[in-house]
Amino acid sequence: MTLGPDIRPRRLRTTPAMRRMVSETRVHPSQLVLPMFVREGIDAPQPISSMPGVVQHTTESMRGAIVEAAGAGIGGIMLFGIPLLKDAVGSGATDENGILNVATRIAVEEAGDALLVQTDLCLDEFTDHGHCGVLSSDGRVDNDASLERYREMALAQAAAGSQLLGLSGMMDGQVAAVRDELDANGYLDTAILGYGAKYASAFYGPFRDAVDSSLQGDRRTYQQDPGNRREGLREAMLDCEQGADIVMVKPAMSYLDVLADVAAVSDIPVWAYQVSGEYSMIEAAAANGWIDRERAIDESLISIVRAGADAVLTYWAVEYARTLR
Ligand code: PBG
Fold first, then answer.
1. From the CA of 236, how far away is ligand 1's center (Å)?
2. Could you report the per-residue pLDDT of 79-134, keeping only the tens digit for each?
3. How is the chain split into domains, by residue range?
4. What are the helix and strand counts (H, E) for the chain?
5. How far is the centre of ligand 1, averaged over its atoms, from the C-alpha of 31 (Å)?
6. Tens of pLDDT along 16-45?
7. 3.30.360.10, 3.40.50.2300, 2.40.50.140, 3.20.20.70: which CATH number matches 26-323?
8. Looking at this predicted complex, what is its ipTM?
């Protein structure tokens, strides 16, 4: 008789074939969304120094990237526009000839049925002060005046053909306001992705470079305090009640508890955004030889899906999708 444990979990780890068969979490390419930046007034794609491998596209280079994304079998793209001129109210966001709306029309045509074309519905890329809304005379971000701008922006994006509006501004009541405006104008099938839980995060750092943002101050009066878990669930539930079709948790990796909380109770799809800083940290560590790049990317995305995300926005969407083949 030999001495030893009766129960041996290692039995399920003995071979690659066994490990593959008992894997609890699988990611499919269709669960991945690629965020893309399109910049006005450039004639060639511009690298983003803090996000190696990511570029600001021209509308023409965006077409090529869309063909590539469709070929990789990912689920969709999320478009961000970078206008030539920014002003206090973010006029470029509601101009039908504004860069994001122009890019959306081209993307919808190029993508056909292969990809879901989504747009960022927020003012920060378009305002000269860099905030996600408009300011009142005392310099504070005016919630209800911002909602009026979001309504106009929603109509412009829906008219351009966006299929899913990503409401990332964190103004109170934004989902209800945008749903009301869309319905009143006949855009019954334009869907809303509510960034229910969005935290005031240092991990958005590289994104500010990506959209040439000149943010004055910070976003702590509208984005959430990183310490607040219960509030993340509350915000997500408010988006559901207001008619969001999908709800988002953002950033992803530092907020997997919030993601798991929302996924446990939500009856609509729950997505997560692996943000710019999450991307750049792994790229930078890998470039230094401190981390195995491919394994780190895989583990980060597996973790986000394991925590409950039905889909993930990630700058590695196309590359990662190819590895899943
Ligand atoms: C707001 C918005 C931001 C990001 C996506 N939408 C910036 C912010 O809230 O400061 C960040 C995405 C990223 O860091 O990858 N329009």
1. 17
2. 999 999 999 999 999 999 999 999 999 999 999 999 999 999 999 999 999 999 99
3. 26-323
4. 11, 10
5. 20
6. 999 999 999 999 999 999 999 999 999 999
7. 3.20.20.70
8. 0.96
